[in-house]
Model the fold of this input.
Amino acid sequence: MLRDGYDVLREQPGCRPAPYLASRGMKWIQRQTSQSVDDAALRDYLRESHRLVVLKLTKLARSELGLR
Done:
């Protein structure tokens, strides 16, 4: 079974579920140090997260936001 990025990052040293957001059922990660996830990898995770959110938008919403 393929694990999502949240599960992978949650187990990395220096990363944890973001306080307040995790308690509300949101899957956000807080990076406390750059020991386990470097900036380039973090950018890749953020880019993929953004892509997944955009895919859920309607065509009209994408157009209004200037997204493809």
User: Anything to note?
Assistant: The radius of gyration is 14 Å. The chain has a mean pLDDT of 85. Residues 55 and 65 are 13 Å apart (CA to CA). Strands lie at 15-17, 29-31.
